[in-house]
Each structure stands twice: as structure tokens, then as C-alpha cells.
Amino acid sequence: MDGNISYGLYTFIVKIASTSVFQVSLLIVVVMMLAYHSTNLNDWCTVVAQKNVLLVIAHPDDECMFFSPCAQAMAKYAENVYLLCISDGDYHGMGKIRPKELIKSCKFLGIDRIEIIFNKFLQDDPNANWDKKLLKKIFRDRICQHRINVIVTFDEYGVSGHANHISLYHALNELIHEESDDCIAQIEAFALKSVNVIRKYIGIMDIIWTILLKGNSYVCINSFGGCIASQLAMRAHASQFVWFRRLYVIFSRYMLINTLERIG
């Protein structure tokens, strides 16, 4: 059944890609991407340059499904990059497999400082709101331990609406507004901007809206090599690479483009 669905979607994609309208549209998008880079709007690298950066995710595979463009930029330009994964992704009983896949994935993204939290109160569950007090303590400890300058996580919509993703944002938002000591006061906090479902699945075409709606946000766009690394990183999560995620890596703008907004 899955094979029939995948073949049908593949046939549909080939027909769309062969149309002149699609080809012209793709050419326009490529030109816009080149213009974007040439005008130095791809500015996320300036934020993280020579900084200690902490990327906070909820589950193994978040790093490549959602944060790949900015994660690779951080690995290239930051002084040190730390990845903190708050759960082992055991929702379907794969808690022993997925942490290993995360480590493999991060090699393609250029990240080697990885910490995974194993806590019975922070279990992978799309309907569970994690304890903010516990999350804030975890964040604060790592920020102080690694002398973090920049921290990145999901926004209040969590990209996919996953309750665990959203919990990370609310905990971080509270932490930076409540704490006033030097350890927390000096950090810059950023959230990965969620977009509507249409923009989410038009892939590279979303560069048009990204540029038009940029405002004061920061944008990071994958290079061609970065796109390949993103694909390889996702394939490292073999337990998760089912047919609908194969489609996700083709169509999702998050494999290509990240927009980040300041928290606070």
C-alpha cells in the first residue's frame, strides 16, 4: 500500500516538474536566492560568529527536520556549538535507537557536542506540556556551564504544533525574563519561526515570502552542499525515515530555509 502511494505521488511530482510554468517559477526562485546571498541578507552567520551557541531540541531528528540550515551555519561560524536534546524520542518505544541516530545525524551537520536528557518527567509525547520549572533549571545549568552567548529553540507554535516543542519556547521565554544574573542576562535568545502549512511545504519557493516578510528577523539559507548534508542527516534517522518523511525532506522549506526571531 505504501509503495502504491509513493509511486502515485512520484508520478504526480514528475508531471508537475515537467511543466513550463514550474520550470520558469523555479528559475525565478533560483535567481532570487542568488540575489539574496549577494545582498548579504543571509545574516544569521553574523549573529553566531565567534559565539558559544546552544541549540535546544525536543527529540532526535528535530535538528535536521527543522533546524538544519541554521545548525550548519552555527557549526561553521560559531566558536562552539552545543546541542541539547530534551528527550530520547521514546514515544514509539525507540528510545534506545534514536539517540544513536541523533549522534550520526549531527556528524553531517558538523555538531559533535551533544547532550541527551533522560528524565521520566520529560518523555516524548505530542500532547504533553513539559514542566517549565524543570526545563528552566536544565537550560540555566547548561547556559552557565558552557558560557552560552546565543540560544536557539522553537517558537510558541513549535513548527508542527507539537506540545513538547512549544514547552521549550515557554520555558526559555520565562527564563530570560525572570533571571537577571550575569549568566542569563548576557545571552541572546532566538526562536525558529513557524509558518503556515502552505509555506511549510512549498520548499525553495518559500524564498519569495521569506524575503518579503523578513522584517527584523534573521534568515539562514542552505547552500547546495548544505542541502545534501541535510538529506544525509535525515537519512541517519533510519527508524524515522518512513514514506511521509521522505516526502517531507523534498518539500519542506525547513530543510532549506530557517527564519529566526529574537525572544524577549
In total, how many domains does the architecture comprise? 1
The main sheet comes to: 7 strands, mixed
What is the element string, with H for helices and E for strands?
A: HHHEHHEHEHEHHHEHHEHHE
Q: Which radius of gyration do the C-alpha atoms yield?
A: 18 Å
Number of strands: 7
* Overall mean confidence score, pLDDT: 88
* Low-confidence runs: none
Strand content: 5-15%
Helix-residue proportion: 40-55%
The end-to-end distance, rounded to whole angstroms, is: 48 Å
CATH superfamily: LmbE-like
Report the principal-axis shape: globular
State the CATH class.
Alpha Beta
What is the SS-derived class? Answer: alpha/beta
**Would you tell me which CATH topology applies?**
Rossmann fold
User: What's the architecture, going by CATH?
Assistant: 3-Layer(aba) Sandwich
Strand order of the largest sheet: 3-2-1-4-5-7-6
* Total of helices: 14
Q: What secondary-structure arrangement, pairings included, does this model have?
A:
Elements: H1 2-17, H2 20-38, H3 44-48, E1 52-57, H4 62-65, H5 68-77, E2 80-85, H6 98-109, E3 113-116, H7 132-146, E4 150-154, H8 158-161, H9 163-178, H10 182-185, E5 188-192, H11 197-200, H12 207-212, E6 218-221, H13 224-235, H14 243-251, E7 257-262
Parallel strand pairs: 1-2, 1-4, 2-3, 4-5
Antiparallel strand pairs: 5-7, 6-7
Helix pairs in contact: 6-13, 7-9
